[in-house]
Amino acid sequence: MKYVLVTGGVVSGLGKGVTASSIGVVLKSCGLRITSIKIDPYLNTDAGTMSPFEHGEVFVLDDGGEVDLDLGNYERFLDIKLTRDNNITTGKIYQSVLEKERKGEYLGKTVQVVPHITNAIQEWIERVAMVPVDGKEGPADVCVIELGGDIESMPFIEALGQFSYRVGPGNFCLVHVSLVPVLNVVGEQKTKPTQHSVRGLRGLGLTPNILACRSTKELEENVKDKLSQFCHVPAANIVTLYDVSNIWRIPLLLRDQKAHEAILKVLNLESFAREPKLDEWVARATLFDALQDTVRIAMVGKYTGLSDSYLSVLKALLHASVDCHRKLVVDWVASTDLEDSTAIEVPDAYKAAWELLRGANGVLVPGGFGDRGVQGKILAAKYARENNVPYLGICLGMQLAVVEFARSVMNLPEANSTEFDPNAKTPCVIFMPEGSKTHMGGTMRLGSRRTFFKVADCKSAKLYGNVSYVDERHRHRYEVNPDMVPEFENAGLQFVGKDETGRRMEIIEIPNHRYFVGAQFHPEFKSRPSKPSPLFVGLIAASSGQLDRLLQGSCNGHAVPTKHSLSNGAYTSTVHQNGHAKKLANGLSNGTYYPNGNGVHA
After folding, report:
1. Is 176 assigned a catalytic role?
2. Is 355 a catalytic residue?
3. Active-site residue, from 173, 213, 231, 395
4. How far apart are CA 409 and CA 279, in angstroms?
5. Is residue 522 flagged as an active site residue?
6. Distance CA 238, CA 241 (A)
7. pTM attached to this predicted model
8. How far, in Å, CA of 561 to CA of 380, rounded?
9. Predicted confidence (pLDDT) per residue in 423-445, tens digit
10. Which of 443, 503, 501, 496 is nearest to 474 (CA)?
11. Which domains does the chain have, with CATH numbers?
């Protein structure tokens, strides 16, 4: 097993995640099998209890693992399926060590950070690296590890220093991502921050083999020579990750600067040093830059102040938009701003929110927890249903569409979810525990579950290619009340997808609507740039007048309008919240590569 460790220095948000993923892409295109590990030094055992405002979205894996959003980045870039153990946290390591200590496995020794914690880290890495994640038998050839955090990462840095020594030269390559700023006063690229960063890393026992330098433009040769001299890294091993039009060009930057050759040389894999096959990435990046016609989607949620909270939803929209040859424009609408109380308290915010909703080609209500902004989401679903505007509701977005239908169409004004009103007189969404204990003391339906199509001629089944079932990822506790399903269907709301028992409702549709679809699962987690989520493709196609043609061409496998279309597109995002509008840089905005607090994500 060969290991590539990606670290960061100078400032946060340099794009370690996209760098690690792009390294994996380039090595994979050389014929190597890749797996990935993300190290997060926080004390939480996983990301499940973290607020989206605190840490961005919680990404859910097939095995039900609730992990850092960077693992979603790895899955999208590399088209792999990771496990919960691919996300290492301080909490997990300490928990495993303390469990062993309680069982007496340390034979009375004093349990310390060194060697017990550091050994546990190394053992975890070696164990997880051997687990195949690409659907093939046997372990991968290279494990790419991203190290997050700062001072709290010290036990991991010590462990990785020991690990690099133990696996030996030729099996470990350290790529250090650093910043080379350009001062506007003199217009000169400054190397001092990177010099200090490398010096500090070397002082901790880790020596970079390769420098990946973030800068606004390509490094000048004299700057490379200076970095090489003071950082003790060959000039050929210094690459520039300069600003480009879209992140799909980052693997191409690495290829063009022969980064793969440098990495393979360090890992004694020079026999694999052939030209990476990245034709698909070239096509994707090129199409991205050529997009002109826009499609406008109103994203109605409660975490609109931080776009990372809905990162996978955004990426799924991007994948689908480019597949439909449309440039995505996301209008962020805070759901609370649609509510009547806002009309009284902050009328300007109320007016702006409704103008955005009415100006959109389609509406998306994503998942969430808690009752804040629920009424605004219900109003968004009502607007889309009554005005034949394409609508996609995910998880809570589906449940609230059901509540709205019950209230408005079935004349059940007290219809509600027991999540928000435990004593609801008309409980159309109820708590249906699955039986697995979760971190919050309750039960949550997590991970991949199978959905069976019950209506063959529905839009959803056609979008999925007329298959009998699909496997999608879940993260929820509440379900549509199965006892009310006959009433709903008699009123015109179809439940076209159900679980194997027929008791859990998975997909809803209104047949005579242009596109009104809800999914209890989270289709965004399995969307890929070259394999966009069918339900998102349906939303974008309906919003851009292409759905009829798309459904007519549906066949086995994902139904897509143009299979040669490859890109994740560009989007411009605007938040209207409390009467204020602002632009968000979420990895891609206005055609520029912008790292954010969690790196840049595919």
Report:
1. no
2. no
3. 395
4. 51
5. yes
6. 10
7. 0.90
8. 28
9. 999 999 999 987 544 444 457 88
10. 443
11. 2-286 (3.40.50.300), 291-554 (3.40.50.880)
